[in-house]
Design brief:
Layout lengths: L20 H4 L6 H6 L20 H10 L12 E4 L2 E6 L4 E4 L10 H17 L4 H9 L3
Antiparallel strand pairs: 1-2, 2-3
Protein backbone atom coordinates (compact mmCIF):
# COMPACT_ATOMS: atom_id res chain seq x y z
CA UNK A 1 0.00 0.00 0.00
CA UNK A 2 1.26 3.49 -0.81
CA UNK A 3 2.30 5.86 1.95
CA UNK A 4 -0.08 8.86 1.74
CA UNK A 5 1.02 12.13 3.33
CA UNK A 6 -1.14 15.28 3.09
CA UNK A 7 0.25 17.91 0.75
CA UNK A 8 2.71 15.55 -0.93
CA UNK A 9 2.35 13.60 -4.17
CA UNK A 10 1.60 9.91 -3.80
CA UNK A 11 4.66 7.70 -4.19
CA UNK A 12 3.89 5.17 -6.90
CA UNK A 13 5.96 2.03 -7.34
CA UNK A 14 8.08 2.01 -10.47
CA UNK A 15 7.36 -0.84 -12.86
CA UNK A 16 9.20 -2.14 -15.87
CA UNK A 17 6.22 -1.50 -18.13
CA UNK A 18 6.92 0.47 -21.28
CA UNK A 19 5.54 4.00 -20.84
CA UNK A 20 4.96 4.15 -24.60
CA UNK A 21 2.91 0.95 -24.67
CA UNK A 22 -0.17 2.72 -26.03
CA UNK A 23 1.87 4.59 -28.62
CA UNK A 24 3.60 1.48 -29.94
CA UNK A 25 0.50 -0.72 -29.94
CA UNK A 26 -3.20 -0.24 -30.62
CA UNK A 27 -3.86 -0.53 -26.86
CA UNK A 28 -6.78 -2.88 -27.43
CA UNK A 29 -6.32 -5.49 -24.69
CA UNK A 30 -9.46 -6.21 -22.67
CA UNK A 31 -12.36 -8.24 -24.04
CA UNK A 32 -14.56 -5.12 -24.09
CA UNK A 33 -11.92 -3.17 -26.03
CA UNK A 34 -11.61 -6.02 -28.53
CA UNK A 35 -15.39 -6.09 -28.92
CA UNK A 36 -15.68 -2.35 -29.65
CA UNK A 37 -12.36 -2.21 -31.52
CA UNK A 38 -10.75 0.61 -29.57
CA UNK A 39 -8.90 1.37 -26.37
CA UNK A 40 -10.96 2.63 -23.45
CA UNK A 41 -8.95 5.61 -22.21
CA UNK A 42 -10.67 6.00 -18.86
CA UNK A 43 -9.92 2.49 -17.66
CA UNK A 44 -6.74 3.67 -15.95
CA UNK A 45 -6.56 3.52 -12.17
CA UNK A 46 -8.10 6.88 -11.31
CA UNK A 47 -7.15 6.38 -7.65
CA UNK A 48 -3.53 7.24 -8.43
CA UNK A 49 -2.96 10.86 -7.53
CA UNK A 50 -1.48 13.11 -10.21
CA UNK A 51 1.93 14.63 -9.60
CA UNK A 52 1.05 18.27 -8.90
CA UNK A 53 4.61 19.40 -9.58
CA UNK A 54 3.86 18.68 -13.25
CA UNK A 55 0.89 21.07 -13.59
CA UNK A 56 1.04 23.19 -16.73
CA UNK A 57 1.01 26.98 -16.21
CA UNK A 58 -2.55 27.03 -17.61
CA UNK A 59 -3.73 24.39 -15.13
CA UNK A 60 -2.12 26.24 -12.21
CA UNK A 61 -3.98 29.40 -13.21
CA UNK A 62 -7.23 27.45 -13.76
CA UNK A 63 -7.05 25.87 -10.28
CA UNK A 64 -6.40 29.27 -8.71
CA UNK A 65 -9.30 30.85 -10.62
CA UNK A 66 -11.65 28.03 -9.60
CA UNK A 67 -10.43 28.14 -6.00
CA UNK A 68 -9.60 24.43 -6.02
CA UNK A 69 -6.76 22.83 -4.08
CA UNK A 70 -6.76 19.78 -6.34
CA UNK A 71 -7.68 18.76 -9.88
CA UNK A 72 -11.20 17.82 -8.80
CA UNK A 73 -13.09 16.31 -11.79
CA UNK A 74 -9.95 16.44 -13.95
CA UNK A 75 -8.15 13.71 -11.99
CA UNK A 76 -9.62 10.98 -14.17
CA UNK A 77 -8.81 12.71 -17.48
CA UNK A 78 -5.96 10.98 -19.28
CA UNK A 79 -4.31 11.09 -22.68
CA UNK A 80 -5.74 8.28 -24.75
CA UNK A 81 -5.59 7.33 -28.40
CA UNK A 82 -8.16 7.19 -31.16
CA UNK A 83 -7.31 5.72 -34.56
CA UNK A 84 -3.62 5.80 -33.66
CA UNK A 85 -3.62 9.50 -32.78
CA UNK A 86 -3.40 11.01 -29.30
CA UNK A 87 -6.80 12.14 -28.07
CA UNK A 88 -8.75 13.16 -24.96
CA UNK A 89 -12.21 11.77 -24.18
CA UNK A 90 -14.84 14.47 -23.63
CA UNK A 91 -17.76 13.00 -21.69
CA UNK A 92 -19.96 15.98 -22.52
CA UNK A 93 -20.00 15.12 -26.21
CA UNK A 94 -19.33 11.40 -25.63
CA UNK A 95 -16.44 11.39 -28.06
CA UNK A 96 -12.73 11.72 -28.52
CA UNK A 97 -11.10 15.09 -29.15
CA UNK A 98 -7.94 14.54 -31.16
CA UNK A 99 -4.79 16.40 -30.19
CA UNK A 100 -3.60 18.84 -32.90
CA UNK A 101 -1.29 17.00 -35.31
CA UNK A 102 1.73 19.27 -34.87
CA UNK A 103 1.72 19.20 -31.06
CA UNK A 104 4.77 17.45 -29.60
CA UNK A 105 3.79 15.20 -26.72
CA UNK A 106 5.88 14.93 -23.56
CA UNK A 107 7.76 11.66 -23.12
CA UNK A 108 6.04 10.53 -19.90
CA UNK A 109 2.44 9.70 -19.02
CA UNK A 110 2.08 12.21 -16.14
CA UNK A 111 2.98 15.13 -18.43
CA UNK A 112 0.78 13.78 -21.24
CA UNK A 113 -2.14 13.56 -18.80
CA UNK A 114 -1.59 17.15 -17.63
CA UNK A 115 -1.56 18.26 -21.26
CA UNK A 116 -4.74 16.25 -21.89
CA UNK A 117 -6.48 18.04 -19.01
CA UNK A 118 -5.42 21.42 -20.35
CA UNK A 119 -6.58 20.62 -23.89
CA UNK A 120 -9.94 19.33 -22.64
CA UNK A 121 -10.62 22.50 -20.61
CA UNK A 122 -9.66 24.71 -23.54
CA UNK A 123 -11.86 22.68 -25.90
CA UNK A 124 -14.83 22.86 -23.53
CA UNK A 125 -14.40 26.64 -23.14
CA UNK A 126 -14.12 27.24 -26.88
CA UNK A 127 -17.04 28.86 -28.70
CA UNK A 128 -16.87 26.01 -31.24
CA UNK A 129 -17.66 23.35 -28.60
CA UNK A 130 -20.83 21.43 -29.64
CA UNK A 131 -22.63 22.27 -26.38
CA UNK A 132 -22.49 25.99 -27.19
CA UNK A 133 -25.03 25.42 -29.97
CA UNK A 134 -27.31 23.58 -27.54
CA UNK A 135 -27.03 26.38 -24.99
CA UNK A 136 -27.85 28.96 -27.66
CA UNK A 137 -30.81 26.95 -28.92
CA UNK A 138 -32.34 25.96 -25.57
CA UNK A 139 -31.21 28.47 -22.94
CA UNK A 140 -34.12 30.15 -21.19
CA UNK A 141 -32.16 33.11 -19.87
Amino acid sequence: MADIKPGRPLAVAVTNEDVDHFIKSDGVETEREKLIGQHIGYRYDVNLLPDYTRLTPFLKSYLETMGWSDLNWLEDVHMGYEEGRPAVFDRNVNGWVQVPAGLKLPDNQQDRDMLARELLIKFQMDEKHPLVDLRNAYAKF
